[in-house]
UniProtKB/TrEMBL annotation:
InterPro entries linked to this entry: NAD(P)-bd_dom_sf, SDR_fam
Entry annotated with the keyword Membrane: no
GO molecular function, one term: oxidoreductase activity
Entry protein name: NADP-dependent 3-hydroxy acid dehydrogenase YdfG
Keyword Secreted (UniProt): no
Entries under Gene3D superfamilies matching the protein: NAD(P)-binding Rossmann-like Domain
One Pfam family this sequence matches: adh_short
Entry keywords, A to Z: Oxidoreductase
């Protein structure tokens, strides 16, 4: 990209339905920008009070915004399935799904309601399951996109999917486990694009990361008294504003220049800050065999098959749409 992309470059989102996971930080900035561009925005999070406050703050800044709240706990497969069912009953389609919400570096190992390690279960498996449940709605939209957030934490050469201890039951170290969950998210984005192309789902999958931004994650995970919390509180000048950190996600979700299977992050200071640009893809994320294995394991753990979500009539309808576009 020769010119720095900003919100002024965002196309109109009128007529588009967009679901964003999370009720703070990047999610609110995404929702505000997309609603101001005319999108019908759904924010989805586990805390109804925090979610309602996020909706209120967005509408204060953009009174005409179409933004609603759906309650979902990404640490619960039952809750994710319930959200998928509600949306299928109330929505005709979804144009964009932004897999944004996350948990970062709790000091001791915790688990989800289904017994998964909390970071892997929430950041990755929860979004894997949500994407699977919403696949039929995404297929009904023309030019639908799934944007999955990763992190610059995956760039370390030591980060890998530990298939021998996927749930960190034998050894739990907060940052390596967080990095693994975000590597899994990046591999999800790439594998979803490959499978969509092979199966004709018509869904474009893109990854993004926000660089280093002033979100609540560092405080909510290890706490304010941790090393990370100290950096966030007292060295705030190292972190770019959340609105700036949201730009790569918004570029991936809306720009005609964002390509399927792409990965976007900030363009300055080692991808820690700046405007959207192609991000460096770590070698581990490009291992197709590992991505295939992770996908198969994920379908088993979540008990959701993406192929089973696609009815013959939906696939036929998609193929007809594709023919009309090309013809």
């Amino acid at each position: 990209m020769t010119k720095s992309w900003t919100l002024d470059d965002m196309p109109s989102q009128k007529g588009r339905t967009i679901l964003i996971t999370g009720t703070g930080g990047l999610a609110v900035e995404d929702a505000l920008a997309l609603a101001q561009a005319g999108g019908d925005v759904i924010i989805a999070g586990r805390n109804p009070i925090k979610g309602a406050d996020a909706v209120r703050r967005i509408k204060e800044k953009a009174p005409q915004a179409s933004v609603t709240l759906e309650v979902v706990d990404l640490a619960s497969l039952v809750s994710i399935e319930a959200l998928g069912k509600r949306l299928k009953e109330t929505r005709d389609h979804i144009d964009v799904l932004i897999n944004n919400a996350g948990v970062m570096t709790p000091p001791t190992r915790e688990t989800t309601k289904d017994g998964f390690e909390l970071q892997f279960g929430t950041n990755y498996l929860g979004h894997f399951a949500l994407t699977g449940h919403l696949l039929p709605l995404l297929m009904r939209a023309q030019g639908s996109r799934v944007v999955t957030l990763s992190s610059i934490a995956v760039r370390s050469a030591n980060v890998a999917i530990n298939f021998d201890d996927l749930q960190a039951e034998r050894s739990y170290k907060p940052m390596p486990v967080y990095s693994q969950s975000k590597l899994a998210c990046l591999m999800l984005a790439f594998e979803l694009q490959r499978r969509s192309e092979a199966a004709g789902w018509g869904v474009t999958s893109i990854a993004a990361h926000p660089g280093i931004s002033r979100t609540d994650l560092l405080h909510n995970g290890p706490g304010r008294r941790s090393a990370q919390g100290f950096l966030r509180s007292f060295m705030w000048f190292l972190f770019q504003p959340v609105a700036q950190g949201a730009l790569p996600t918004l570029f991936a979700a809306t720009s005609p220049k964002a390509r399927g299977g792409g990965y976007y992050g900030p363009d300055k200071l080692g991808e820690t800050r700046g405007h959207p640009a192609e991000a460096q893809i770590p070698r581990q994320a490009m291992e197709k065999q590992a991505a295939h294995r992770l996908w198969e394991i994920s379908e088993t753990l979540t008990e959701i098959s993406f192929n089973a979500q696609v009815s013959p009539s939906e696939l036929t309808g998609l193929n007809s749409t594709t023919v009309r576009r090309e013809g």
